[in-house]
Amino acid sequence: MDFKNFTLKAQEVVKESIKIVQISGQQVIEPEHIFKAALKVSDNIVNFLMNKTGANAQNIALAIDRMVAQGPKVRGGEPYFSHMTNEMLLKAETLSKEAGDDFVTVEYMILGLLNTDCAAAIVLKKFGMTAEDTAKAIKELRKGNIVEAQKLYIQLEKEYGVITEGIKKAI
């Protein structure tokens, strides 16, 4: 899995999940860490998906927080992705490609999570967020657009070296 194939927001979610694991005194990055990070980094997208699916956002957030808090604590060691997180991210890559995207987005990370049998997916489904409804919500969110704008950013960065924060936000 190459994180260069993830949008900047999706990369931020991964980085934030690492911080959450470290702050929690844990080592294994589980799908619930990714979801919690997505809520923090890209709350507009995640909240849109939860609202469109009719999910109970408050109960989901509380349950995910509990799951993270109850994770095993360790001292030392580097954070790493669990088998389920790897599966989730690979599914997100596959779903993004099937949708015609060049990059993995936050919404496809969430859909990838929902397409696994992980504990976080069970919680999301329990509170009304299904993979089918989320896929429909993504189509509504996207309005037929695909993610290829980041190609421009990569091309500009290769040609000119440094890209300003203003350009990053515009792309």
Q: What gross morphology would you assign?
A: globular
Strand content: under 5%
Helices, by number, come to 10
Oligomer: single chain
- Please outline the major beta sheet: 2 strands, parallel
Structural class: mainly alpha
**How would you state the average pLDDT, rounded?**
87
- The percentage helix is 55-70%
Number of strands: 2
Low-confidence stretches: none
Question: Biggest sheet: strands side by side, in what order?
Answer: 1-2
Following the backbone from N to C, one meets helices and strands in this order, namely: HEHHHEHHHHHH
Through-space gap between termini: 23 Å
Rounded Rg: 16 Å
Question: What this model shows, in words?
Answer:
The mean pLDDT is 87. The chain has a two-stranded parallel sheet with strand order 1-2. Helices cover 66% and strands 2% of the residues. It has helices at residues 8-23, 31-41, 43-53, 57-69, 83-98, 106-114, 119-126, 131-142, 150-160, 165-170; strands at 28-29, 80-81. α1 crosses α2 (31-41), α2 (31-41) crosses α4 (57-69) and α3 crosses α8 (131-142). The longest helix is centred in the N-terminal third of the chain and has 16 residues, at 8-23. The chain is globular. It is mainly alpha-helical and 171 residues long.
Q: Which helices and strands, and how do they pair?
A:
Blueprint lengths: L7 H16 L4 E2 L1 H11 L1 H11 L3 H13 L10 E2 L1 H16 L7 H9 L4 H8 L4 H12 L7 H11 L4 H6 L1
Parallel strand pairs: 1-2
Helix pairs in contact: 1-2, 2-3, 2-4, 2-6, 3-8, 5-6, 6-8
